[in-house]
Structures are given as C-alpha cells and as structure tokens.
Amino acid sequence: MVTNTSIPKLFSPHAAIRRLTSTAPNRVAFAVSPAAAQIGSFIAEKPYTPPSWACDLSPVPSHSFTLGQFPTPIHKWNLPNLPEGTEVWIKRDDLAGMELSGNKVRKLEFLMADAVAQGADCVITVGGIQSNHCRATAMAAKYVNLDCYLILVTSRLLVDEDPGLVGNLLVSRLLGAHIDLVSKGEFSKIGSVALTDLLNKRLLEKGRKPYVISGGGSNSLGNWGYIEAVREIEEQIQLSGDVQFDDIVVACGSGGTVAGLALGSQLSSLKTKVHGFSVCYNPGYFYNNVQGLIDGLQSGLNSHDIVSIEDAKGLGYAMNTAEELKFVKDIAAATGIVLDPVYSGKAAYRMLKDMSNNPTKWEGRKVLFVHTGGLLGLYDKVDQLSSFFGSWQRMDLEEFVHAKKALVRCSA
Fold first, then answer.
1. Where is the active site (predicted)?
2. pTM to 2 decimals?
3. Does 288 reside within a domain?
C-alpha cells in the first residue's frame, strides 16, 4: 500500500481547507483554496468557460451543473509484476460521488444543463440492464427536478419479467425511474436511436417535454466532461511539480470518455498517449465513433492519430471469464482498489496482460489509469465471485467460556 508521504502533492491539495495559525492569540484563520466548494454550490448551475487550449472547439457549452466531487485524487497504484521501471498511477473517478460515481457524472454535468436550458421536464436514455450510465442519469435527473425514462437491454428470457433490485437497478428504481425493457435481439435489430426516438414520440404525444441523452452520455456535448477532466489532470500535475505521465489508459464502452481524454490531451500541455481498451465492439468501431465525436467539435483531428484502441471485451459486454473476476478480487486484496467487472476491471486486466506480453512497450513509462467507477455492477456478479472467497470462520469462544466459569467458581 502506498502511504500519503510518498505522494503528498497529488491528493487534491487545492480541494482542501487548510488550517493556519493566526498571529492573534487564541484565534484560528482558515485559508480556503479557490476550488473549495461554497455552501450551495453543489447541484448548482454555473457559467462555463473552457480551457484556453480548447477555445477553438465548437460548439462550446454555456453552462454546466456541479454534480460530482471534483477534483478526484491521483495516487500511485502498486500493481504487481510491472515491467522494469514502469509506474502506474490511478485517477480515482470512482470517488466522484456515490450514486453518481464514475465517468458518467462528468458528461452529465453538461448534458443536464442543456436539458434544463431547453425546457425539458424529463430525460430519456438507454443502456444495458446494469447500466452505470442509466443509474447516474436517473440520479442526476432527480437532482435537477427532471423525470427519467430508461430503456434497458436484457436477455430474451428475462425481458418479460420484473428486472429485480440488484446493483444499479436498485438505485434507479429507488429514484423512481420509469423502465422499459427490450431484448438484446430487439436492440440489435432496431438500434438505440430508433428506440429512444420511439419513446420520445410517445412522451411528446402525452404533453411531456423530453430530452434524449445518447447511450453513455457520449456525444459532442458530453465530450466536454473529459475535456474538462484533462484540465483537472493538468492542474494536478502543475501542483505536483514532479510527475509527468507518458500514457493514459481507460476503458472504452461508448467512446465519449476516451474521445474527450484524447482530444484534451492532444490540445493541452499533457501530450500523453491515450489507450482505450474496448469492452464491447471492435477497435474499428470505436475509431469511427471517436472520429464522429471529435468531428462534432470541429477539431480537425484524426482519431487514429490521437488514440490507440485495443480489444478487451473477452466473452462480450458485461460478460466475464473466471480469470477476469479473480483478477478483480486479487487486485482488491493486493492494492485496496476495487475495480468494476464491466469496464475498469477488463481494461486493467488487458493492460497488465499487454505489459506482460510486450514489456519493452511499457518499460520506464509513467502510466495514468482512469478508474471510471461502476462498482454497483459487482452485485450482479455475486454468484460468479462467491467461489473465490473462503476466509471466514466462527470465532472460537471456548477459552472465554472456561475463563468465565472459573471466575464464577472463585467468586462462590
């Protein structure tokens, strides 16, 4: 485990309130950093000013909501069996909040501001049955007084049954989200755009004012969430003064996170190589997807020049091998970092596989791994994970019982 003393400057120092001794006797002065949150600033709308290096992108959002706990910390991650001289650090976007934790909240800060600006009274989005994005959207919508309609994709065998209360579903349903189920076959045949358009039409006919959010919050507006994250990383590096990253690694599930990171890295002072590990679809799909997202901001860049995308889907989206799940368990036990099984778990698993198979590619490099959250998805894997746990026992109280009996005899 890494101690704070080895990495004092990257633990979000500008988010802290520092206690300073006043010259006046018996008094304490508090120096509050510019990033410290004021009372009432959470769940508040604010004007948005882009980083200077992103001012030429278009369109630039005018406002955002404050929905996450930012900046999220960066610290060294003592992973086992790294190549010679390789360091892996971790950006803890899983700590951006509880119900809103992970990468989705950064996108939703901009998307919810746009929904409110357009006079919406509800939002629509789509995702898998255990979608982190859908759960986060339901929470963000409730924060800003909007209803939420979720189209959730499940198996053909379960599409006509109650979806249950496991993991992300529990939170979404606690929040009162309206849920429509479709089968994987229906989703593949009809597509997410047509499905959300259909629900949008039905709500309009009922007099509602819906706002459609694309899957994963991945569109040109949502991209600003991780453009802004690059500014945050840039500021943390400047405050640290002694850490520079050669690579950024992140899971790739809908393309928006990796597109924002790659675009921001290219335009800013970071100039780090961004690696996206695809947890669904093939790399070619995501190169095209990222290209569309950065074209939507008129960047003039080529996705192949700013990001490297590799396959990490394994058995398929949200499906895990025993080896992958054991990896998640072992990394938690070894480092204290709990990865999710759908996104960061697969990305970290493939990253370490690549480091093992191609050590010279990574030797001597400083790598920043972005943990995109999604821990509630672990609850859906309980049955598969249970075989890896066995270290429990009933506490032996025989010695205590004998001692108590002896004490009674002595007192008699």
1. 131 (nucleophile)
2. 0.89
3. yes
